[in-house]
Amino acid sequence: MGELSLGKRLRASRLGPAAALVAQLPGASPALTGLWVAALLISMLVPLGFALASGALVGSVPPALRSGMDSAAGHRLLWALGATALLFALLQSTSPLLGALGEVLGRRLNGSLRRRVMAAALTPAGIGHLEDPALLDLVSQAQGVGTGQFTPGQATTALTGMLSNRLGGALAGCLLFTYRWWLAVLVIGADLAIVRIQSWELKRSLAGLTDEAETFRRAGYIRDLALTPEAAKESRIFGLDAWLVKRFGEEWTSAMTAVWQARQRGRWAVFASIGAAGLVEGVAYWLVGDAAVRHQITLGHLTVLIGAVQGASGILAINSNWLQINYGASAVPRALELEKRAAAITTSGRLPASGLPARSVRFEQVRFAYPGSAHEVYTGLDLEIEAGTSLAIVGQNGAGKTRLMKLLARLYDPTGGTITVDGIPLTEIDPGQWQRRIAAIFQDFVRFDLEAGDNIVFSDSPGQRDAQLLDHAAGRAGAAELVAGLP
């Protein structure tokens, strides 16, 4: 069986991205996760207690009026009033508290996943994996879905409200068992079935987004060309403004077409499910109201049952929270898959690089082609670079000068032939140690907007700078005067 696309795997998943998100919360902040769970349980129980206390309060009014406030019935009324007031205060405070905890926990999760994505992308010693479109799609999806950038943190905040509504609604619906067991089954079962239908339709939209990750990535690249200063000169000199706007619109529309089509196909099912939910609730209200009119249940029991029907509607909390949960949480499995793929990329070499090269570096019949390309840049390169000497390599653009340096730095391994250092194959030398011995400035270099000291001592242990060594390095590079003049 062929490999499933991301969207198909999402549709086939039983637990879905939300379960993967919840599983990562303890790792982001164990203590905060414990507080979040405790607040969630309280937010579920308080509405249930409020419904029962409200029923007791309303049911205590007639006896208290008949017997007076000094009677036992009057005292029960006062106790019920106090309990209802207390639970109402808790009801008003637990929701903001739970929301705040969910937001803070979501930020912690975002930070944790960002560090893991960065670590996964930086794990392989070479750079070939960063040119793999499939892995780049994973990196993009691990940071957010589409160009809307829904994050796992947003999903955590939305999940907090969703769980509170869903679980609290289920508990409230269970109160209907005190009247008719089949009514409780009808209300809860209908709500769950409707949620299932709406969730399935929304998942199809999400599957369309994940299947179009490459197109969204292109759209994001074109957007950045228009909005960031790196390409500002070219976009103005060449008059690319209209072209960029047009291409962004084409890429975005192409990616969203599948989503729009899925939404179009499922809209009638969503509308029908909303109508069915209203019908079930209407039947439940009519049944308990009719029972009260016929004096089959007390006024207090009626109050509890009405609260139960109303509370059970929390199960139907299909709204923007659901979208944020599924769009944002879908980044979590992508981050986990990215870690798995990056860990599977192994680079050989365990020998120390200290003191190398002492004699020379040799390229012997080296062949090289970029991953996924049949075109070979080198078809049998022989070259020897003696230690302690200077070598200048000149040639036309695209002749392979930069590629030669990338092979020397072991950012790529040759597809044929060998590179040796003092007779030792470069593939047997620890790549991290070897790269620490390489100093390179490429044509497409990166300018690090950091302090001069940071630029000089990159990769050294922080907080252990030696001022004399810094001055010595700046002097050897001919930058002492420039550095001395900096603020």
Strand order of the largest sheet: 2-1-3-4
Mean pLDDT, rounded to whole units?
A: 83
| Residues in helix, % | 55-70%
CATH superfamily of the largest domain: ABC transporter type 1, transmembrane domain
DSSP strand content: 5-15%
* CATH fold naming of the largest domain: ABC transporter transmembrane region fold
Low-confidence stretches: 1-15
Ends: how far apart? 63 Å
**Number of DSSP strand runs:** 4
From the spread of the alpha carbons, the general shape counts as elongated
Topology:
Elements: H1 6-12, H2 16-28, H3 30-67, H4 72-122, H5 133-143, H6 152-174, H7 181-211, H8 213-227, H9 232-237, H10 241-293, H11 299-312, H12 320-329, H13 331-344, E1 360-369, E2 376-386, H14 401-408, E3 416-421, E4 424-425, H15 431-436, H16 452-456, H17 467-476, H18 480-484
